[in-house]
Amino acid sequence: MRTSLYGTTALVAVGVVVGGLAADEASAASGLKLGITGFYRNAIGGSFGNSPTSTFVGPSGTTFGLGNFDRQAVSMRQEIRVNFTGQTTLDNGITVGVLVGLNGENVAKSGSTTQVNRAYADFSGKFGLVRVGEANSALVTDCVVDPGNVTSNFGVNSPNESFSNVGFAQSRNQTTGVANVANSPGGYFSTFGVAPMGSIGTCFGIEGKGNKIMYFSPSFGGLTFGVSFTPTGGQRRAGGGLSYGTDVTAPGPGNAGNNILSVGVDYTHDFGGWNLTAGGGGEWAFTQYTAAGTAQSGSSKPAWYQAGVQIGIGHFAFGASGAYYQNYAHAGYASTTATSQDDGWVVSGGASYTIDAWSFGLQGEYGSYQQSASAILGITPTSAAGINADNEKLWGISFNTAYALGPGISLEGQVAYTQANYGSLSAGGISLAVPNAVGVNATTVHSWELDLGTAINF
User: Fold this and answer.
1) Is the torsion defined by CA of 28, 29, 34, 39 positive or negative?
2) Can you tell me the distance from the alpha carbon of 327 to that of 257, in angstroms, rounded to the nearest whole number?
3) Phi, psi of 24 (to 5 degrees)
4) Strands across the sheet with 168-172, in order?
5) Which pLDDT band, with edges at 50, 70 and 90, does 58 fall under?
6) How many CB atoms are closer than 10 A to CB 176?
7) Residue 379: Cβ within 10 Å count
8) Helix or strand or coil: residue 10?
9) Residue 331 and residue 195: Cα distance in Å, rounded?
10) Cα 37 to chain center, whole Å?
């Protein structure tokens, strides 16, 4: 099952102890021993009771709809991870480890660009841990999330699998040359608005597994911290002659920027009868480029701030987490309704109860994102002056459960409700009617979700 923390520098303390003991025993260095770990997950889910059911007719008979429009109700998917690992302790007490993780589903697909999920080397000792390679940032590794999801597959706060269609649009008889977002939301399974409901959460950061250097401290009375630096957040540049030079500016809309600093801090303590885990951090891109490759200045650079807390008492755990996204259109979101300087925030809360082989979780999430009238209508900011767009608001709630059949093997299930309110446009306090507009002035789009899954770790 998914652990309560996305990652924690408490693991570093364990590595430090191992390294220290190895140094005391003056063990002889040996080559890295190959090991294999990973997981297999499969899930089936359905989206039901979706509304609104009305459709919108655009130019030349093009028809658009939100949510479940023109979609089947039930789908299946699987996730496979194979990690090749190795570790050895040198004569000087430094422990060296390597992990190369492959996405099993992508290996079998020709032309895939994401076969390697992560790949890095660790150097640990009494000084802490230094990590180099393609891995999660310090903020994401140390991120504390609410404990309301007890599964590996589901939940509403950045789930691995979501079968909700909230946040999607579909078009039939799509025409070309239609510029504005309101009347041309895109083709099959296209994002409309900020993002699909399953892709928002409190522990993402502004870049994903770019090649970086990281440092995690040992534990100081339960306090740990991590720092990472990523030259290019939105790209992975292979070596061995496959890439040359330093021109990795990652231009284009939705890119994560360059020269990204990430900081995460955690504190854990057992008070005898109850325990506390709290953490927070930030992530900042010091360089951001336009689609033409020109460096942007000032307020267009993305940033991410996160905090979370968990309290455990016996079989119970409860807590909350939150994140604030600055310029979220440059933080990995495929938003169709935002400009470079729109911000957003998400909060989540949850509780879990575990007894014997059973675990039960209740999790809720709410997010609010700024939108731009110019992006919605497909006009220049000057032309959209005086027109205001409401924030898009998304929220969801999940009741999820897991049953452990054996060590590392569980059956999982979820019942969830998700909803998006796309807001409306107004000028001078008067609501504007936009003919045939998908989402604009819509009240809500919602969905009930019913899921079952398996999670097998090896």
Assistant:
1) positive
2) 11
3) -60, -35
4) 56-57, 63-66, 168-172, 190-191
5) low
6) 6
7) 14
8) helix
9) 12
10) 23
Instruction: Report the pLDDT value the prediction gives residue 27, as an integer from 0 to 100.
Output: 43
Provide the 8-state DSSP code for 183: T
Tokens of 376: 């919605």
Whether residue 234 contacts residue 260, with contact meaning beta carbons closer than 8 Å, is answered with no
What is the pLDDT at residue 168? 81
Strand partners, 352: 317, 361
pLDDT recorded at residue 33: 82
Cβ pair 347, 320 in contact under 8 A: yes
Cβ atoms of 203 and 145 closer than 8 Å = yes
**pLDDT tens, position by position, 29-41:** 567 888 999 999 9
Give pTM, 2 decimals: 0.85
108 conformational bin, left if phi > 0, alpha if psi -120 to 50, beta if neither: alpha
In this structure, are residues 301 and 288 in contact, taking their beta carbons and an 8 Å threshold? yes
**Helix, strand or coil, per DSSP, at residue 197:** helix
Mean pLDDT in residue range 302-323: 96
3-state SS, residue 448? strand
- The C-alpha atoms of residue 85 and residue 2 are separated, in whole angstroms, by 20
Q: Say how many C-beta atoms besides its own lie within 10 A of residue 246's C-beta.
A: 9
CATH number of this structure's domain 45-80+133-239+251-457, picked from the four choices 2.40.128, 2.30.30, 2.60.120, 2.40.160: 2.40.160
Q: Which pLDDT does position 312 carry in this prediction?
A: 98
Strand pairing partners for 8? none
Single-letter amino acid code for the residue at 414: Q
More confident residue, 426 or 184: 426
pLDDT (mean) for 203-212: 86
260 contacts: CB under 8 Å, gap ≥ 6: 137, 206, 207, 210, 212, 229, 230, 233, 283, 284, 285, 286
User: CA nearest 184: which of 443, 432, 388, 437?
Assistant: 437
- H/E segment holding residue 452: strand 445-457
Burial class (CB in 10 A: 0-12, 13-18, 19+), 386: exposed
Strands 295-296, 56-57: pairing is unpaired
Cis peptide before 52 (omega within 30 of 0): yes
Residue 39 phi, psi (nearest 5): -155, 160
Count of C-beta atoms within a 10 Å radius of residue 45? 23
- The residue-averaged pLDDT of 165-194 equals 64
- Minimum mean pLDDT among 17-21, 69-73, 419-423: which range? 17-21
